[in-house]
Amino acid sequence: xxxxxxxxxxxxxxxxxxxxxxxxxxxxxxxxxxxxxxxxxxxxxxxxxxxxxxxxxxxxxxxxxxxxxxxxxxxxxxxxxxxxxxxxxxxxxxxxxxxxxxxxxxxxxxxxxxxxxxxxxxxxxxxxxxxxxxxxxxxxxxxxxxxxxxxxxxxxxxxxxxxxxxxxxxxxxxxxxxxxxxxxxxxxxxxxxxxxxxxxxxxxxxxxxxxxxxxxxxxxxxxxxxxxxxxxxxxxxxxxxxxxxxxxxxxxxxxxxxxxxxxxxxxxxxxxxxxxxxxxxxxxxxxxxxxxxxxxxxxxxxxxxxxxxxxxxxxxxxxxxxxxxxxxxxxxxxxxxxxxxxxxxxxxxxxxxxxxxxxxxxxxxxxxxxxxxxxxxxxxxxxxxxxxxxxxxxxxxxxxxxxxxxxxxxxxxxxxxxxxxxxxxxxxxxxxxxxxxxxxxxxxxxxxxxxxxxxxxxxxxxxxxxxxxxxxxxxxxxxxxxxxxxxx
Length: 488
Hints:
By secondary structure, the chain is mainly alpha-helical. It contains 19 helices and 2 strands.
């Protein structure tokens, strides 16, 4: 399949060098689009209402969270240009053909929740616009219709593939950026800044926990990082990739979280609302609120499309033998069902959302540590072995499992949960310093990385051939991150 066609037909198979025409700078709008969500406003409000932080502490959280989380996304995405395959397909080289089914299944299930949250947010945006413009109040029937509308649009974009995502990301970045500046200007003019700056500082523990909460959204994208870099040439700047990933996310996360914190001054119940979107209609004049919500709706649709795009690959690695676009439909149906339950049955959207984000970060963290350490050791991937799921595969290891990776992953997952506390679950070590600071996800990454690094390494049955000098990538530490690197 040519990378230029409208519908991407390539699944798990690595992208040949002849079709790698992507550019590092295209990652900026990709990760901008991945964060265009009004949920960041709600999370910013939560830092003020629940974490008791002042505006300066919120600023620290808003800067630190994308640097930490999307820094990891950028680093792991380097594997995409090395192997030319999706993240969970490359993961077969780490865990073994059978072993990869375990983290793959967990990550796939976690994506159901992420897509459900975004589908609900998008549906609420549609409902709020209908209320503001036409005075139509939400009811169960209308909730179902808006959910179907949002998920259907998501399925369409994600089914088309990488080129559709790139085009949509580019234009949504321009539109959302312009209207965000407009909203920011309105808030600057209308906010009681003396009240904002008079708020006392919260505890350091709550600030660290806030970083973890905001960073959890970025952590959830880590296994998907290679999915969006597999079309980059092998010579693409690794430092440029990391910089573009962090920059694209930060340019949205920082102002959105700060705006949410400022909005919490005027609407203290913002973070506890069942509907995480309608407050925009209460805080902003209709001529700003409606177009802003419509553009945010496009952003949330893109987030879900990117998630479903990656979920389609993950489903294929689990043995669901259908084309990538068809694999996406499974997650679409699941997000419809769970979205309806969250909108109609759940009593607290924010509580459910934060609990989900916390567990999501822990679930992904164990995989991140193992995959990251392996990537630092591995110069290349054997494309044929990635696709060969039989005993003849170089990545079959012993019985289809790489026991070192599986051991590190399983123990790290358990460690992360020991330090984690959410609304309906509390690990036995949740009251320790790590637990109180919401660092269960960090403990998971550290545990899996250290364990995998010290356990003896098993080589593939037939090592991949080294890259030729002409196509070999430059060493990470030797690449200067200059302004021109983003055009590689």
